[in-house]
Amino acid sequence: MSQEQLSAPEVTRDRIHTVDDESFVEENVCIVTGAASGIGRATSLVAAANGLTVAATDLDEEGLEGTVSKGETLEVAGSIEPIAGNLAVDADLERLVEEAASLGDVKYLANVAGLQHIDSIDEFPMEIYDQIHDVMLRAPIYLSKLCIPHFRETSDGRGCVGNMASVHGHYVTSDKVAYNVSKFGLRGLTQSIAAEGDGKIRSFSVSTGYVKTPLVTNQLADTAEQRGISVDEVIQDVMLGQSRVKEMMEPVDVANLFLVGFSRLGRHLDGGDLLFDGGMTLTYE
């Protein structure tokens, strides 16, 4: 695989998994962060295709409009409502949940948004660490805090939080300390929600290897420079080297996992992690 092959194809209707679930109706709202591109956009499309109203949020307003437009092209059964905001600003998080609640019953939260920065620990800029922490860990915690009371107010008192973790929430690679710490933290958040949810408010995390997203393609050059290797070597040796499945997942593949986790099929998935990593973390040569 070369850098040219890393761009994910457009989401098509036949790639979207659907589940017959009585809670997947337009009256119920799914909040999705990072919804302007990549996994967040795909999760918004999959949730809306399954009949939910999606409160799609991102700092990138143009990207959000692209997500809405794609949903219209796919003629999704639900709707996608864009709510621009900055996950590092508490007032924006509060406004997001308030606006989502005005659309219907807040039932699902998909914490997908992510950032990346490549540097060794001794060189890592703390202002960038703080930014990554705020977006990738603090915001999911605060959004969960804000959403849980809404879950309890629904007719059955149920709700679910899905967190985008990673193989980096199981083991780490070098030069990504902020990302690594955030992903481990998301798994802690997942289990904390499960511990307090009494089986009615569930949580799960999704851990994948490298996915064809802008977050991945944008880190190629920095990783290559940091390790003193070529971009193609980063792809073949770093990203796919330990995977037994020699292809990257696409955003819609990950979005489908969120859908299953939210659905009745995931009713026993509570605090658990969906590890879809091609064998990266559990096998070795």
Describe this structure in words.
The chain has 285 residues and is of the alpha/beta class. The protein has a single domain (20-210, 250-276), classed as Rossmann fold, CATH 3.40.50.720. It is 42% helix and 15% strand. It contains nine helices and seven strands. It has a seven-stranded parallel beta sheet with strand order 3-2-1-4-5-6-7, sandwiched between helices. Strand 2, helix 2 (61-74) and strand 3 (79-84) form a beta-alpha-beta unit. The longest helix has 28 residues, at 126-153. The relative contact order is 0.16.
- Cα Rg: 18 Å
Low-pLDDT segments: none
Number of helical stretches of at least 4 residues: 9
Residue share in β-strands = 15-25%
Helices and strands, in N-to-C order? Answer: EHEHEHEHEHEHHHHE
The major beta sheet can be summarized as:
7 strands, parallel
**What name does CATH use for the topology?**
Rossmann fold
Average pLDDT reading: 92
Number of strands: 7
Q: In the CATH hierarchy, what is the superfamily?
A: NAD(P)-binding Rossmann-like Domain
CATH class designation? Alpha Beta
Briefly note the structural class of the backbone. Answer: alpha/beta
Summarize the topology.
Layout: E1 28-33, H1 38-49, E2 53-58, H2 61-74, E3 79-84, H3 90-103, E4 105-111, H4 126-153, E5 159-164, H5 177-196, E6 201-208, H6 214-217, H7 220-227, H8 231-239, H9 251-262, E7 272-276
Parallel strand pairs: 1-2, 1-4, 2-3, 4-5, 5-6, 6-7
